[in-house]
């Protein structure tokens, strides 16, 4: 049985919750989740890797068990979230580590990597986008909000915060939706239902435009520093297209790209396959 510790640490006045497993002196893999989930999305992956790696999975501010300060007291932008996680790695003593980035975790992880390239040993991108061609038409309602942040366009995005939308994200593109446990999406819905969470998520939808604006900087980091990269991607993702995975090869000719017959939350159906790919890649 894998021993997983559930901890919280003070990061400059913010309580950040994280999961930790594996030998402390083993190579570290920092696991960064996405919307609308938390570190619990790695619950099936961690046991497959904890014998060989030191695994750390924080909940981002505004998600999961990490403290949820009100919008008036905390700036919910991706720049700020990246700064908190960057500082988190320093507080718990991570000096060098590989990144596993998914969804929102990608622009956060790439910001950290571009700021501290000497600390990054490798990158695993699981449906973690850094190229315009990886964005599907599913982003159109959010793009409309970027172009015109009116109350009407903001309210139009509330449909993404419903239980039906969460469950759809988990099951869309999977060969057998009945193979996807409802536990993860149900927990996500509980977090989304907390007072004030909806407005925080809408703020982040609006701020995601800053990530797209940073794509050229992320790509410049990849070209200049050539980190080893594995893109392991659910090919049926309704938000991040396989073209986004293949695009890594433009800047990283030696990148490994593996497309899986599943959707956005690929770990729900392919945790063992992804773990095997990571073990081979990081060996």
Brief digest:
The protein is α/β, with parallel strands linked by helices and 283 residues long.
What is the CATH superfamily label?
A: Alpha/Beta hydrolase fold, catalytic domain
Give the low-confidence spans: none
Name of the level-1 CATH class: Alpha Beta
Order of helices and strands: EEEHEHEHEHHHHHEHHEH
CATH architecture: 3-Layer(aba) Sandwich
Shape: globular
Q: Helicity, in percent?
A: 40-55%
Strand order of the largest sheet: 1-2-4-3-5-6-7-8
SS-based structural class? Answer: alpha/beta
Summary keywords:
283 residues; Rossmann fold; alpha/beta; globular
What does this structure look like?
With 283 residues, the protein is an alpha/beta fold. The protein has one domain: Alpha/Beta hydrolase fold, catalytic domain (Rossmann fold, 3-Layer(aba) Sandwich), CATH 3.40.50. It contains 11 helices and 8 strands. The longest helix has 29 residues, at 197-225.
Write the layout of secondary structure elements.
Layout lengths: L3 E8 L2 E8 L6 E5 L13 H4 L4 E5 L19 H14 L5 E5 L3 H11 L4 E6 L14 H8 L3 H5 L7 H9 L11 H10 L4 H29 L3 E6 L7 H5 L1 H4 L4 E5 L6 H16 L1
Parallel strand pairs: 3-4, 3-5, 5-6, 6-7, 7-8
Antiparallel strand pairs: 1-2, 2-4
Helix pairs in contact: 2-3, 3-8, 4-8, 6-7
């Amino acid at each position: 049985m894998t021993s997983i510790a559930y901890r919280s640490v003070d990061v400059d006045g913010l309580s950040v919750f994280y999961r930790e497993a594996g030998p402390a002196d083993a190579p570290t893999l920092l696991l960064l989740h996405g919307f609308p989930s938390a570190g619990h999305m790695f619950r099936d992956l961690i046991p497959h890797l904890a014998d060989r790696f030191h695994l750390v999975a924080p909940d981002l501010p505004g998600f999961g068990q990490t403290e949820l300060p009100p919008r008036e007291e905390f700036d919910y932008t991706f720049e700020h979230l990246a700064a908190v996680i960057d500082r988190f790695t320093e507080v718990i003593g991570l000096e060098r580590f590989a990144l596993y980035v998914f969804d929102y975790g990608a622009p956060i992880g790439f910001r950290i990597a571009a700021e501290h390239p000497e600390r990054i040993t490798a990158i695993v991108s699981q449906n973690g986008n850094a190229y315009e061609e990886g964005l599907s038409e599913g982003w159109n309602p959010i793009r409309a909000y970027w172009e015109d942040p009116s109350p009407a366009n903001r309210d139009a995005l509330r449909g993404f915060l419903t239980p039906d939308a969460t469950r759809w994200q988990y099951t869309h593109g999977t060969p057998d939706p009945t193979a996807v446990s409802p536990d993860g999406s149900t927990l996500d819905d509980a977090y989304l239902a907390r007072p004030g969470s909806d407005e925080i998520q809408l703020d982040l939808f609006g701020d995601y435009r800053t990530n797209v604006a940073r794509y050229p900087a992320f790509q410049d980091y990849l070209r200049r520093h050539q980190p080893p990269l594995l893109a392991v991607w659910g090919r049926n993702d309704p938000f991040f297209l396989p073209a986004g995975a293949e695009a890594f090869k433009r800047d990283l000719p030696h990148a490994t790209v593996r497309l899986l017959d599943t959707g956005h939350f690929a770990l729900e159906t392919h945790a063992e396959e992804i773990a095997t790919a990571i073990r081979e890649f990081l060996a």
